Amino acid sequence: MSYSVILPEQGMFDAWREAARIAISHRIPPGELDWAGMGGLFSAAPLPDAPGPHHARVPPSFMKLAMSVIWHSAPERLALLYRALWQIDRREGDPLSPADPLGRRLNLMAKSVGRDIHKMHAFVRFRELPATGRRRFAAWFEPEHNTLEPGSRFFAKRFADMDWTITTPRLTARFEAGALGFLPGGTRPDLPEDASETLWATYFANIFNPARVKLDAMRSEMPKKYWKNLPETRLIPDMLKDAEERVARMREAAATAPRPGAAAVSTRYRAAMPVAPVLPETLGEARAAALHCRRCGLCETATQTVWGEGSATARLMMVGEQPGDREDLEGRPFVGPAGQLLRAVMAEARIDPAQVWLTNAVKHFKFAPRGKQRLHRNPARQEIEHCRRWLDLELALVRPQLVMALGASAAFALTGNDAPLGSRRGQTETGLHGRPVLITWHPAYIVRLPDRTRQAKARKDLMLDISSAAQAAGLGRE
């Protein structure tokens, strides 16, 4: 007896999985299944409605392979996957191994599907449609396989703030108001000209390096079938014709020997640049030297060195971890959200920030870019140790009676002890410089606490510690 299976154009993998589960549960051999649903000389029966008594188990690697092969354009892909399922269930060979003839064929099909999805992500070119509220874009693409459905999830994440449509001969993906749907395919739509294409073509022509042209590699990574949909490819024939002449011009414009006397001019120029003293004697000289610090890699991405500020003869010094985003831009310590909290608590304790020396253990902002944001990252142990030179200079030049360590990084920089802060908060320890160090919370820790009760308690702890430090240093008295 033969069975006919007809699967939908959309959601094909889930439909195939359910049909295969029912067929294997009834022990239907691969030869008795017509996955194309075309029938033969005799009419074929549909699959049973419910699973049978047999339950097959497959490894996760089979499901991963099937989720890729299912989108291949070969009509026999469904039958091949079921044959592999049949062999796995009956323990006949290893249809997942590239050494097995069936496994090799399935793995090659999966790789071809993966390359097709990659090319879709690389070569789809949207054009903007007339605006009717949200911005709308459309594109035409001709994939080798049925890869629009799995490939469109990438565009839904990347272009979630606009509406777009990708039309292919078999299927159309439409993303509207944050929802992704699919419609039947069609012919190439009449898309409007895009003004940005001219700008992109100009940029592409100027970055084109004729000396690195490898035509075989270019055709392999960007087959000609996609060229007609890419605005930059219309420039390639003319650029290839001019490649040899452009290479010759590049050689002529290559670097030449410097003119006589250039070395002397360069030497005088470098000698005229300001040089920070090896051992600064004032806070101003120390700040000037820190502006040119290259002791670690943080200076490469930060906007500037953020030096301390306050009274040069302060009895109390407060040391935080490192500058934040706002401090990095303004060049002053404790001006961001955490700094505003610290200054508010100081005001409640009747402490004028101008009476205190405010600084950080690390003088450059360490961050991780995330879109338009710069997210704070804790400095590494080595970075704190590299920056200890500048903190030691501040301690030696200001000579405070008491130092407050705001947070774990500052506590380590001042004491060399990296033990957890919870049991140390509110305690006074002897610093590496020989002076007392009062350990307390960093205001940024308080700002980030999600629980308001805990936040209020930590703020009260900071208030008590600042009041205690001020009293010990003889500040804030009326």
From TrEMBL:
Keyword Phosphoprotein: no
Uracil-DNA glycosylase-like domain span: 307-463
Alphabetical list of CDD domains matching this protein: UDG-F4_TTUDGA_SPO1dp_like
GO biological process terms held by the UniProt record: DNA repair
InterPro entries for the chain: DNA_repair_put, DUF4130, UDG_Type-4/5, Ura-DNA_glyco_family4, Uracil-DNA_glycosylase-like, Uracil-DNA_glycosylase-like_sf
GO molecular function: 4 iron, 4 sulfur cluster binding; deaminated base DNA N-glycosylase activity; metal ion binding
Pfam entry (one): UDG
Key words of the record: 4Fe-4S, DNA damage, DNA repair, Hydrolase, Iron, Iron-sulfur, Metal-binding
Keyword presence, Aminoacyl-tRNA synthetase: no
Xref: Gene3D superfamilies: Uracil-DNA glycosylase-like domain
Source domain of life: Bacteria
PANTHER family: TYPE-4 URACIL-DNA GLYCOSYLASE, TYPE-5 URACIL-DNA GLYCOSYLASE
Similarity comment: Belongs to the uracil-DNA glycosylase (UDG) superfamily. Type 4 (UDGa) family.
Protein name as annotated: Type-4 uracil-DNA glycosylase
Lineage, uppermost ranks: Bacteria, Pseudomonadati, Pseudomonadota, Alphaproteobacteria, Hyphomicrobiales
